[in-house]
Request: fold
Amino acid sequence: MSGARHTGIIGVGKYLPEKVLTNADLEKLVDTTDEWIVTRTGIKERRIAKENEATSDMAVRAAEKALANASLKAADLGIIIVATITPDMFFPSTACRLQHKLGVSGIPAFDISVACSGFVYGLAIADSFIKSGLVKYALVVAAEKLSAVTNWKDRSTCVLFGDGAGAAVLGPVEEGGIMGIHLGADGSKGDLLQMPAGGSCMPASVHTVENHLHCIQMEGNILFKHAVKIMGDAAKAVTEPLGLTGEDIDVIIPHQANLRILEAVAKRMGVDPAKKLYMNLEKYGNMSAASSAVALCEAVEEGRITKGKTILMDAFGGGLTWGALIIKW
Ligand code: ACO
Reply:
C-alpha cells in the first residue's frame, strides 16, 4: 500500500485476570496497612493471574477484543508487537506465541522490553510501520504477569504491582490519529529498577533463587522524583512542537504508577488532575506496560475518549525509559 498520512487507533481491548488481591489480603502477607498503601500510592486492589496463565494467554484475550472492536480479523494484521518485561519465556518471543494463538502466521512479530513505557513505544513503532506504507494494520499488545516476578516478602514492592493486558489495533485514518511522539531513555539509571538475575549477566542458580534475584528490585523513593520530572518534561516535549498546552489536552492517559506522581505531573503541566487525568490504578495497581494500555481501553469504554478529543499518553519506567504521544481521536 502507499504511505499513509495518518495513523489512528481503530480498536482497543483489555483483559484482567479474575482474582482480586486487596490491600487487606496483603496485610496478611507482609507488614503493611491498607491506610499506608492507599495514602502512599492510591492503590486499593490489583489482579493476579492464575499460576498456569502466561503473559501470552492474557495478551490473546486483549488482542481478540481489540480486533473485534476494530471490526478486523487477525488475518488482516501486518505486524504484531508485544510490550512486556514478563515474557512467557526468553524465546520464542511472546509476540510469536501470541501470533500462533491468534491463528495467523507469516507476518512479523516481536517483543519490546521497555518496562512501563512499552505500550507508548509500541504505538510509536506501529505508527512508523503504517506511515512508511510497510503495513496497513498493526497490533500492539502490552501484557504483564508481574506477580510472577514479585518478591512477596518485600513490602516495598509487592503492594504495587498487578497483572493484566491491554491492546490496540492501529491503521490508516483520514484525519487526526497520532500527531506527535517523544521517546527517550537513560541507561545510566537502570539499576534503580531491575530484575537482576536470570539473564547472561547473572545466570539462574540456587543462590539467585534463594535471594529473590529473579524478582523486581526498586529504589522507589529515588524513582518517584525522576518520574515526576521525566513525565512532566516528556509531556512538554510532545506538546510544545504542536503548539499545544495543558489546556488543549482533553484526557491524559498516564502510566499508572502512583497517584501522587500523577498529581504532581498534572500540577507541573498546570492542569486540574480531577478533570484531565484518567486513573484506574486503585483497581489494578501498576501493571507496567499494560497499565496505560488498559487505561486507554477503559477511558474509551467509559466514554471519556470520544471522536475529536485530544489525548496525551505519558509513560515512564525502568531503563530508565519514557514516552509521550499526542493522539487526536
Ligand atoms: N507498608 C508500610 N510501610 C512501608 C511499605 C509498605 N508496603 N513500603 C515501604 N514502607 C515504609 C518504608 O520502610 C519506610 O519506612 P522508614 O521511614 O521507617 O524507613 C517508609 O515506609 C517510607 O518509604 P518510602 O520508600 O520513602 O515511601 P514512599 O513515600 O517513597 O513510597 C513508593 C514508596 C510507593 C514505592 C513510591 O516511592 C513510588 O511510587 N515510587 C515510584 C515508583 C515508580 O514510578 N516506578 C517506575 C515505574 S514501575 C516499572 O517500570 C515496572
About this structure: Residues 220-239 form the longest helix (20 residues). Residues 7-175 form a domain with the Peroxisomal Thiolase; Chain A, domain 1 fold (CATH 3.40.47.10). The mean pLDDT is 96.
